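Follow-up to my earlier ticket, as requested here are the two runs.
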Amino acid sequence: MTSFKHLLIGAVGLAMAGSASFAQDCPTGLETVREGTLTVAVTTFAPYSFMDAGNQLSGIDGDIVNAIAEKLCLTVAPLVVDPAAAIQSVIAGRADLTTGDWYRTVERSRVMSFSDPIYLDSMGIYSRSGTAKVEDLVGQKVGTVQGYLWVASLQELLGDDLQLYPSSVNLQQDLKSGRIDFAVDGAAPGQIAMQRGEMGDLKVAISEPDERVPASIQPAQVGFPMNRNADGLVEAVNGALAQLKDEGRIVEFLGKYGLGPEFAEVGEPRLVE
């Protein structure tokens, strides 16, 4: 009886010690929009960011944010927004960060902070031929989405043959219908759609490097846009990201949505023009 009692006391002590250790792992004093909560401006941009059928934050960015929040002992509060309002939600202090394959750019860094780079987003060429050469776009009807890093370069190279679209959905519709011959868009979503048999006779290739289009040479690094004054939270998020990378979970999250480990090889942090 005495022996059992000692064992029981010891087990309780170990449990309490474990609980105390867990509690000590939780950062204290993190300033967020709402105490104890990580408010996330969620854009709908599969496979990076979307709300699933159970109304839970999902996608590559979503899964990473959920894992970060768990490490920081925060509850995720999704705030579904239009992509045009996502950045402003963070700047205005309505959200702590936003998801949706956001590039770490010089322009954005002037008004906000960024997490460390998480993965790469390469320029993709969508076609029926499967070409990866920028040269094959010259003299053809080409479409791309407004706001990408390669837009200015392609405008200079292609002139009036380049048509700008407000979204990837509109771009893909015109490519599939034959109104344009080629599309230039993020490679990852197209490659995933191709694997799933959703692209029909279209093929997606990561663009070969071409000096005329700098974005084809150095892919953009993706990070989480965060409020410029949230130094403590940025540091905590970066610490959690470093742990997730060391644990191999970033590669795991990318693989879950059909992207290879090479997308996680981000290199040294940089901002793109």
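Run two:
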Amino acid sequence: MRRIAISVAATSMSVMLAGCGVLNATGSSDDASPTKGNDITVGLLLPEKANTRYEQFDYPIFKKKVESLTDKQGKVEYANAEADAGKQASQLQKMVDDEVDVIVLDAVDAHSIAEGVQKAKDAGIPVIAYDRLAEGPIDAYISFDNELVGEVQGRSLLGALGEDLSITDNVVMMNGSSTDPNAKQFKAGALSELKGKVTIAKSYDTKDWKPENAQANMAEAIAAIGAGNIDAVYSANDGMAGGIVQALKAAGVTELPPITGQDAELAAVQRILAGEQYMSVYKSYPEEAESAAEMAVAKVQGRDIQFDAQTRDRVDSPTNKDIPAQLVPVVELTKENIADTVVADGIYGVSDICTAKYKAACAAIGLK
């Protein structure tokens, strides 16, 4: 067993189930849900659509896995909050009113949703935090090792700056939303690598993770520092990296500085090919979504041995301690390993990536 706090870095690991006996076993627990059959309803609440991963990967993968685990008798009640915390609170309340069997929640605002989590708990509905650790009486948590994500981004950025790395190198930090606990962890992980090695010339917490807000922030940084004085940009995700690139180009920058990202969005993979973005962090959405579905079904069906096998880590939120958790590993994505990551895992086909605009770049790295 391993413990981490929301503000403390952890070493990533993946929990694998062994043996069909575990999959069919049941156990006992003081707070276990009553055993149910396959005719269950799983509520899935995702936070926004600006990041393409949620609609393109998380939801369909999660839904398919629930169906396969329940012999196609289980169903998923899905809602996306479109970055609106109030809207998500209403969506959560609806699921409580609809008496779904379990809720998987990726919170827009981890703090404000705590009241809704408590209402679900009072109604006897387990809540599993997905990707972001919500406050309140969460039954379990599944995500990637978020501080490790920031560390990977920070180390990659330093590597991109090369042997001439100096404390005088100016880095702009474009962090995620202040309402997202993951953003705080990404930032902490990145700073653990960057502090003392470069100068953080400007740092922004980007409202709602929106690319247009990142673009506006970057324009402000360019005006304050000067485009020619920016040596690298830490971007917490790919969507914001796209906005950063637009701001730099609008300022007349033709040779872009190294820019990080996260999520391995298709547009980011293509920017990496074209040399407009240095790297992204690839996170296996199939592994996270499928594990979350397994966790949810096991919880509501009272399969405690299976549930415990999937949640061998422990995390602390600002409101609750010792939350059962699973942390999924991450991979640095650069031009060199596109074929071995997103293509090999079936996230994108070569034809998706190597459109007419990028055919020459694909040929240059042997991607075909």
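The only thing I checked on run two: The two ends are 43 Å apart (CA to CA). Let me know what else you need.
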